[in-house]
Amino acid sequence: MFSHYLDLAWRSIRKTPMMSLLMVMAISIGIGITIMTLNVHQLMANNPAGDRSDKLYSVNLWSQGPDTWDEFVVNLTYQDAMNLRKSDAAPRKTAMIRTGLALTSSNPDIEPKLEDVRVTDRDFFAMFSVPFLFGGAWDASVDTEPANVVVIAKKVNDRLFNGSNSVGEVVFLNDKPFRIVGVIDDWQVLPKFYDLHNGPTDETEVVFIPFSLLAQEKYDPWGNISGWKYEEGSLFTQEKTWVQFWAELDTPAERENYRNFLDGYVDSQQQLGRFTDKSRTSWVRLNDVARHLIDNKVVPEDNKILIGLSLLFLLVCLVNILGLMLSKFLKRAPEVGVRRAIGASKGHIFAQHMVEVGMIGALGGALGLLWAWVALQYLSKRFLLDGMDNLDPSIWFIAPAIAISSAMLAGMYPAWVICRTKPSVYLKSQ
């Protein structure tokens, strides 16, 4: 019976192509806008750390003076980051910044290219579950004794070495030779929680070098630099904050011990004339990934408002569809009257029209997915929103469900009206 209803629905759609097209377009536009905003929200609200969310902690210190900022600064000063790196209070920890360097190989046919570079420690790769294709992270000794070693991304390896195992090969960063120790597989974190300064949709870096080289090479940070007073000297001695710092703390006991260590560190620095804001009751904040994303407003309130507006727009589309469906179904009243006279029940008539409504919803949902994909491609390129050009996997199931259920909701009243048609009225007119 259902296949018969499908056949009747398809024939009805073909009989009134323009009206059916209008309904499909109306629901597809409403679905497309709704799905686009839902997709952005899904990506931004995602916790990319997964089951490690409560083990990775962003370390924040209130190092600024009184009457400065109202909130913790996510970054640390260079001297604080270096002091925390030297401690063994956390099983794993990493300091890091983002910079950019010109990368080339010994092949003269390959032109240098400015690449995003993550200056970090060895523990970064294990803490953030970075997948390796060849090789691995540099030796632990490199974190204390600088060496020109590098980990590159798969796409860089493909460009420079045609995808072959390049471990042991030499590349040049700002004309200085670096030996490749590892090649990571495709890896994109959305949102990019470990460094939100260039935006949560910023593409992950493609080159990784030791943090121990930072003071030696004086790399310029590509990110926020926050200061609260005028100082002479360089970033490496000033009270400006520009270094991200993360610690891995697996158990509540480790977290408590590390917090106690940080409290003790603040006390020792206060003895040296730092951390001078006496209005504070705590100078330490440890945020796991979930709290880190919330405090940094990765999902802004504007995004939630947009979802509400898109749903209202979908409602407007459904009201228009209701009117079109009612008009279309009422034109078929004589046909329905005859069918009722020869034995078709109200339930059969209602079911037939609901199948037709569902088919229109399915077509609108498929077209809406296409609109959403095209819109995301445009937004990704127009506003440089890396990683936003793909639909979240769940959206492929959510979109048809919303489209079909919305269309059927809008079609219930027209279907109910037509199934109540009295056969006698139209038999007399025939």
From TrEMBL:
Keyword Nucleotide-binding set for record: no
The keyword Transmembrane belongs to this UniProt entry's keyword annotation: yes
Domain ABC3 transporter permease C-terminal: 309-423
Subcellular localization(s) per the UniProt record: Cell membrane
Annotated membrane topology: Multi-pass membrane protein
Record keywords: Cell membrane, Membrane, Transmembrane, Transmembrane helix
Residue intervals passing through the bilayer: 21-40, 305-330, 350-374, 394-419
InterPro entries reported for this sequence: ABC3_permease_C (IPR003838), MacB_PCD (IPR025857), Macrolide_Exporter_MacB (IPR050250)
GO molecular function: transmembrane transporter activity
GO-annotated cellular components: plasma membrane
Primary localization: membrane
Domain MacB-like periplasmic core: 20-218
Name of the protein: ABC transporter permease
